[in-house]
Amino acid sequence: MNIPEPTVLKADELGRIEIAMHDGVPVIRRDVRSARWWARPLARRAAAREARALRRLAGMAGVPRLLGWDGAELLRSYLAGAPMQQARPAGRDYYRQALRLLARMHRLGVVHNDLAKEPNWLVCEDGSPALMDFQIAWTRGRRGALYRILAREDLRHLLKHKRTYCPQALSARQRAILDTPAPHSRLWRATGKRLYKLIARRLFGYWDNEGKGRVRD
């Protein structure tokens, strides 16, 4: 891949995300200095959460590597592939690997919290899954009841995508999980979700974090 100059992937009130060259290899750079002044504290906090999660997952396949975070600029490794809404993975093996990926992440004490968004799932060049965008990941506290609830929601969101692209492979247990969202998820759909969509559309100009793709209930 030849990237002579940084290529902007996304620019909004929360800053700018670029693909650039670093030590001869492509990397993803998140610059929070370019965020609007009123959104800069939020952008910095989101980047710090992503850095914390990637440190916790260091060495794990299927997630970017953290290359640097100085409070203003976050560098992470580039993973070649296509987002789920473009690749539309229909094979059973993709979802078997994705389940193992989630299990490894959860064992390391990280909950993603944003896996309803298809752009946060990547289909790599070899067909394997990868996870992106850890800005609202949960990395603190004990793995108690709340942690287990949030981890189950990560799983449920993966199963929603499986239901879309590979429904014939859903087991009876997986269908039962899909039919029983967590209480906070039901409350979110009934109350806060409409407000979130309104803010995302009117204030930030997009539906999901990447500005495209679908957000599933």
TrEMBL record:
Q: Name one GO molecular function term.
A: kinase activity
State what protein this is by name: non-specific serine/threonine protein kinase
Q: Which reaction does it catalyse?
A: L-seryl-[protein] + ATP = O-phospho-L-seryl-[protein] + ADP + H(+); L-threonyl-[protein] + ATP = O-phospho-L-threonyl-[protein] + ADP + H(+)
Ranked from the top, the taxonomy reads: Bacteria, Pseudomonadati, Pseudomonadota, Gammaproteobacteria, Lysobacterales
Q: What is its EC number?
A: 2.7.11.1
Q: Name one Pfam family in it.
A: RIO1
Q: Where does the RIO-type domain lie?
A: 39-141
Tree of life domain: Bacteria
List, alphabetically, the SUPFAM superfamilies matched: Protein kinase-like (PK-like) (SSF56112)
Keywords from UniProt, A to Z, are: ATP-binding, Kinase, Nucleotide-binding, Serine/threonine-protein kinase, Transferase
